[in-house]
Every structure is written in structure tokens, then in C-alpha cells.
Description:
- The chain has a single domain (about 50-325), classed as Ribonuclease Z/Hydroxyacylglutathione hydrolase-like (Metallo-beta-lactamase, Chain A).
- Helix 5 links the parallel strand 12 and strand 13 (about 245-250).
- It is about 20% helix and about 20% strand.
- The protein has eight helices and 16 strands.
Amino acid sequence: MQHHTATGFKNNYTDAVPGSTRDLLRWQWNARRKSLPPPPQTPTPVVAPNLAAIHANAGAAMQPAITWVGHATMLVQASGLNVLTDPVFSERASPVQWTGPQRAQPPGVALADLPPIDVVVISHNHYDHLDTNAVLALNKRAQGATLFIVPLRLKAWFIRQGIHHVVELDWWQQHTVRGVEFHLTPVQHWTARAMGDRFQTLWGGWAVFGADFHWYFSGDTGYSQDFQDTRARFQERSPDGFDIALIAVGAYEPRWFMQNQHINPAEAVQIHRDLHAKRSVGVHWGTFNLTDEPLDQPPADLAAARTAQGVSEDDFFLLKIGETRALPARVNG
């Protein structure tokens, strides 16, 4: 397989991820030179979660629904399963909790208030997507019953944390849970959790197929042909496309440094079109200040991108932190 190498993993369409150490230092130096007081920002919209509805949505009568917890963490309720994407509940997206990117808003649903979580999908091991405290707490509250589905070579990290109900997958492999298929798909990114471990574990997006709902989660990614490949791969499995795609829309500036690893809103809308998604929702914004654009910039850039590409707000929308959106179930699987 071409993404396997003697020293780890690589992307399908570029070797230019992440930026060089020189580029990283250049970005940080430029940011320090521009360290003026930031302009006023509109806080990310927040609503109180409808916990009664979230908990009542269960079993055979489960209505497809999504609830945005914040950043890339989404509760997806569909096909009889409660699924959590990239759970991050800690105050900081960092290896330590005394420094590093800090939350601008608390989680939209507290971890203790979640319904029982059947499956957690992890896109990659960066600290704003894989939170040690969160996965330990999820495992403990479920007494080990929650299944963690992760990219290749990441299972060993979970085992070291004492979490054993883990399945790891390579790109295009799938695992089925109570009739729901979870497929790991290629995206353009990279991994590292410490010094010297770049590319040692795999990364990816998730394509999920249940009888009544098909959905996709991009994780972190730069723009590449991988999304057209994903559409082609699942054309027969899902001829009419995904019912919802969870696509990153934040952490994209400056483009000269970020473009190979993080999409911007215009590229997010293109991915929506590449996947032939019926609807998409923007994630990975408004929670952690990771890059140069203000936290409130993605909604404006997404609106401009939708207009430029002829996509309606109904077809590519944003949620408030804590908001639940019910979605139509498909009739014939």
C-alpha cells in the first residue's frame, strides 16, 4: 500500500505535510511581530443542550440527529447508536493543562451529561482531537463498554492508557457495530503526539453507513483528491450520497503554512460537493484559538464560499455549541 513506508505513513497526493521547522519558526515569528491587541470578536454562539431530547432519542425509534459539543466533537445519534467524534472535553488542547490552547467556550454537553456512548471514532492523535482525560472518562463511565475505533497503530496508545475495547483500521478497512459500518477513509494530514513520532500512527476521515443514515466525518485535512476518491469508492454503497458530512471549517490561516494540512471554508464547500453530501455541517471552529484567523472568521468565510459556489445555507450550515439538529432518515438504507 502506497501510504505505508519504512518510516511510517504518508499522504496519497503530497509529501508536503506538515510544514518544515523553518516554516513553523517563520510563522511563529510573524505572529509575534503582529502581536497587537486582537480585534473584538463575536463569541461562538452557544445554547443550552436539550438533554431530555438527547437521552430520549434511543433504541429502535432513534431519529438521526447531531449535537455539536465543540471543535471537532459531535454526538451523532443514528441507526440505534450514539457515536462521538474526536472527543475533547479538557480545558486545554495540550499535553498539559497549565498551558496551551484554551477553550473559548465550555463543551456544549458536559461529558457526564452524555447519553451512553456506543462508539467513539478518532481521526488522528493531535491533542485537539485526542484528549487523554476525555477517553479515560468515557471508558470509565461505560465500564469498558464503549468501543473506540481508531486509525492504524493508534491502538497501542489506548492500551497503554488501560483502554482495551479498541479496533484499529487501515484506510478503506471497515468494522461493523450492530449493523452499522465504520470505514476509515484517506485524508491529507499527519500525526504526532511527542517529539520524534511524526507519521508513526495513521490519520483519516470516517464514512459511516447505517440502515437509515449515511454520514461522513473529515477530521483534520488539507484539500486533496481523496474526497473524490471517497465518493467513487462508495458510489455503489450510497448512490445518493451522504446524508450529512461533518467538515472542518476552521484553523486555516496563514494559507502559505496551513493549506496542505487544514482546509479553509472555500475548500470545505468544495469537499461538500466532491462527496455529493446532501447536507454538511461545519466543525473544527470557534472553540480553540489554534491559527491566525479570529475565532469568529469562519462563519463569514463560509457564507462567502457558499455564495461563490452556489450552495445554500440549508445545505451547508453551522450549529451553535450545544445545539441539536434532527435530520431526515433514509427510507431504503
